[in-house]
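Contributing new records

If you add data, match the layout below exactly. Sequence lines come first and carry their own label; structure lines follow with theirs. Keep one chain per record. Anything else will be rejected by the validation script.
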Amino acid sequence: MNIHTLDKYAKSLIKEAANNIKSSFSSTLIIESKSEANDLVTNIDKETEQYFINHIKRDLPDHRIFGEEGFGDEIHDLNGYVWMLDPIDGTMNFIHQKKNFAISLGIYKDGVGILGYIYNVMEDDLLSATLGEGAFSNDIRIPTVKNASVEQSIVGVNASWVIPNRHIQHEGMVKLLQTVRGSRSYGSAAIEISYVVTGRLDAYMSMRLSPWDIAGGMVIAKEVGAVVTTLTNEPINLLQQNTFIISKPGLHEQLLSNYIQLK
């Protein structure tokens, strides 16, 4: 299966999975907690991941799946084809709001992202990218992102960082929020990444994201010229959790140098 055929195949799975999610609104959700009380998972998260796995294992048996809900493969390397999947990114939004959640998918070959997708299910907005061929929003090309200054930026940041916390020096975050034009928090890493690559946000950062949260968005980001690193300005390791920042050019260095200091 060549890359363009694989792209069509992945998009068909995403759209069908999204239809299944929307159809689930009329049924009763089974909600559980994972690592802590607010780390939620539903039966629909699990069923959506299993939908992808069943089709991929049937149609592409040499491909492996790295999924949030743990139904895929144990991944210790990125050799061959690896699908990195979050079936519902923004589960709390899915439960409480029935919007602001996304299917996030990145397909990697020997550690290189070749296809990336973020599908905002309720907005019917599919962002996609193919390595070296640009990024698209519902088949309309996304332009390269432009440089941005701190003073004219809107940044995606969790409000808990501006009070004393165990992750980051909150004084720097207070200074940042006093300087930027505005801040937002949407509760879905995939959606916030999609807003940076389409220019609705200028930067988004998080203290802890897993590979399936960001793998698809990283492929898209590369195609539009957005900068992606950890908060210590290191490359992302897609075999473990990372701190994370995606930003327009120019802004990235300013944020890391002048405002962000990890504990």
